[in-house]
Amino acid sequence: MNQSRFEDFKVNTKIKLSALWTAVMFCYVYGDFFTLFVPGRIENLMAGNSGAGETTPIKLLMFAILMTLPSVMIFLSLILKPKVNRWANILVGLFFTAIMILVTAASISEWMIFYIYLAVVEIILTSLVVWNAWMWPKHQPV
Description:
Distance between the termini: 37 Å
Number of helices: 5
Largest sheet: none
Number of strands: 0
Strand content: under 5%
Order of helices and strands: HHHHH
Shape: elongated
């Protein structure tokens, strides 16, 4: 019997990590975008309430800095040397996993069920970042 086999190849760890961070960022963006459809959300934002208290220029800067990390990890995962890359992904991955666990716990409500779903996906993705970085293959000399 002639069985067709699909070609497959081993994906480099750097590419896996970069792809995982890209997926995380899409979930973050969609989650934040969908919150605009939650009743009262836009009004609260216009009134200066970010959901984490009063909106201030410093808080917005802090949020921007925070969200720069996973965005930049997409690129850094591709260019950093393996040893630094591994630790950067483990530490940033653990940090964002912890943040999303806290955000999930604070977001429990009927209108935020979509956000909880995305947060769980984000937790899985950042946990996979940590796992893939932790399990980074060692170079075997020939």
